[in-house]
Amino acid sequence: MATVRLSLWDFLGTIPDPRSSSGRRFSLQSVLGIVIAGILAGRNSIRSIARWASHLTDDDLKLLCINRKKAPTQTTMHEVLSRLDPGSVEKAFSSWFETFLEKRELLRMAIDGKTPKGSQTHEYPALHLLAAYCVDIYSVIMQISVDSKKNEISAAKEMLFDIPLEGKFITGDAIFCQKEICNLILKNRGDYIFIVKNNQKQLIADIKTVFRKHSFPCILNQKIQTESVNIEKNHGRIENL
User: Fold this and answer.
1) Among 34, 54, 179, 198, which residue carries the largest CB count within 10 Å?
2) Is the overall model pTM greater than 0.70, yes or no?
3) What is the CATH number of the domain that holds 121?
4) Among 84, 112, 146, where does a domain finish?
5) Do 131 and 69 form a contact (C-beta atoms < 8 A)?
């Protein structure tokens, strides 16, 4: 029997609507569908998305289950987005992405922190996120915010706990080279490669010892490089590892 893969539209329908049913003109699915379509069309603000949506035809709107003659307004979009539960939205998107992971024997995922451009305003600090990017499907499969009460290490453990890790290959920066993170991945039958720096002094010393004492067939006649230079051009610093 063929397995039917649910679409993103189906998972949008699992997000609880925070609005009262009284006087509701557009379903939550339709509002979120308009917002996502507007972003894919290159709009990056609620105002520009609403302006773009106002030019959609009746047939376009029907594809998003809108049978009215006009799209949701900027006010409606703002009201919906400001009242949504972020956890429910993340869960819906993560569940959708997991449908791409279940049947793949090995998928490569990179975890990394980022601060979205333009997220800082005079009222709010910059938003810092930790994301899991799947190389095989060219998409972020999960991301969580890293607030002042936790760091990327604790956020990584929380995020990896919710990702099906069996058969997955996890990569990341030196900050994630932690015993608890590595054990979590291995316990769930995944694998990993993390950069090792001086945050793990004993481990990096052991690695250097192994490379000094052992010969490898592919480099028998070559001098082993024990020092490398990592040039962080974007951040204006040079690190000697």
Assistant:
1) 34
2) no
3) 3.30.420.10
4) 84
5) no
